[in-house]
């Protein structure tokens, strides 16, 4: 995965609570110390009295956006791609948010193929990682760690918990997972949203990868045949995984 472009255009932080406030402060510190160039930082929360609105000092480069997350994402992600070499957007996900990117891709599929069945369902088989649990909303939560990781770990090549090289990468595991599932049912992907450390302990994924994941869904559904698309928001070690199940296109 290539690093995010520098500088960045807009960075959207999902959530204005304790995590979002921390990330906003870190990005401000990174910008002031020359570790980050960014046009705007948008902290997205539906609560006008969220922690970020109450506690963050005024900053001309930062705005608290009052919106539901699912309502904010289509407009933000619908922004045109920049010209090659120009700054692009990025998203800082919250570790406690629902699988918003899978829900966004579901909305993309419903709008693109009206009348065609589309739903998020739990992936059929375990991934095989040490931690693998089914949660709500059609999600499977997976992790290579069977220990409690340090808060805000940037997932370096040497794992701080086992004090040895990190030999795993969630994106690679999911690519193999898709190949395994495809032997039994038409399965495409993975459509990945990969959080990477960018600056001062803040992880984010870029808009270019978001557009690529949308293209994965559009290509998978273009034949009109039933197909599953594995969608995952991941880091190197952890992930939330969903299956976007598309039915056959109407005759």
What features would you highlight for this structure?
251 residues; 14 strands; 30% strand; alpha/beta; 6-stranded mixed beta sheet; 28% helix
Mind sketching the topology for me?
Elements lengths: L7 E7 L3 H15 L5 E8 L5 H5 L6 E5 L2 H9 L10 E5 L7 H13 L5 E4 L9 E4 L4 E5 L14 E2 L4 E2 L4 H13 L4 E8 L1 E4 L2 E5 H15 L5 E8 L3 E9 L5
Parallel strand pairs: 1-2, 1-4, 2-3, 10-13
Antiparallel strand pairs: 4-12, 5-14, 6-7, 7-14, 8-9, 11-12, 13-14
Helix pairs in contact: 4-6
Structure description:
- This protein is an alpha/beta fold and 251 residues long.
- It is 28% helix and 30% strand.
- It is built from six helices and 14 strands.
- The chain has helices at residues 18-32, 51-55, 69-77, 100-112, 170-182, 207-221, and strands at 8-14, 38-45, 62-66, 88-92, 118-121, 131-134, 139-143, 158-159, 164-165, 187-194, 196-199, 202-206, 227-234, 238-246.
- A hairpin with a 3-residue loop joins strand 13 and strand 14 (238-246).
- Helix 4 crosses helix 6 (207-221).
- The protein starts with 7 loop residues before the first strand and ends in a 5-residue tail after the last strand.
- The mean pLDDT is 90.
Rounded Rg: 18 Å
Proportion of helical residues: 25-40%
What strand order characterises the main sheet?
3-2-1-4-12-11
> How many E strands?
14
Q: Provide the succession of SSEs.
A: EHEHEHEHEEEEEHEEEHEE
Give the gist of this structure.
The chain has 251 residues and is of the alpha/beta class. The protein has 6 helices and 14 strands. The protein is globular and about 55 Å long.
């Amino acid at each position: 995965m290539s690093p995010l472009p520098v500088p960045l255009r807009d960075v959207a932080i999902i959530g204005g609570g304790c995590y979002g406030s921390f990330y906003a402060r870190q990005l401000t510190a990174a910008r002031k110390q020359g570790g980050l160039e960014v046009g705007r930082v948008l902290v997205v929360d539906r609560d006008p009295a969220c922690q970020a609105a109450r506690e963050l000092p005024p900053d001309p480069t930062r705005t608290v956006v009052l919106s539901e997350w699912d309502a904010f994402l289509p407009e933000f992600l619908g922004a045109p791609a920049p010209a090659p070499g120009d700054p692009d957007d990025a998203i800082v996900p919250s570790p406690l948010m629902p699988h918003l990117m899978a829900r966004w891709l579901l909305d993309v599929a419903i709008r693109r193929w009206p009348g065609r069945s589309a739903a998020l369902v739990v992936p059929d088989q375990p991934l095989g990682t040490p931690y693998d649990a089914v949660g709500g909303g059609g999600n499977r939560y997976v992790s290579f760690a069977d220990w409690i990781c340090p808060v805000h770990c940037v997932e370096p090549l040497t794992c701080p918990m086992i004090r040895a090289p990190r030999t795993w990468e969630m994106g690679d595991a999911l690519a193999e997972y898709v190949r395994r599932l495809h032997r039994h049912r038409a399965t495409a992907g993975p459509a990945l949203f990969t959080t990477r450390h960018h600056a001062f302990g803040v992880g984010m994924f870029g808009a270019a990868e978001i557009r690529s994941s949308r293209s994965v869904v559009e290509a998978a559904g273009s034949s009109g045949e039933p197909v599953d698309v594995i969608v995952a928001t991941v880091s190197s070690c952890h992930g939330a995984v969903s299956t976007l199940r598309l039915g056959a296109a109407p005759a």
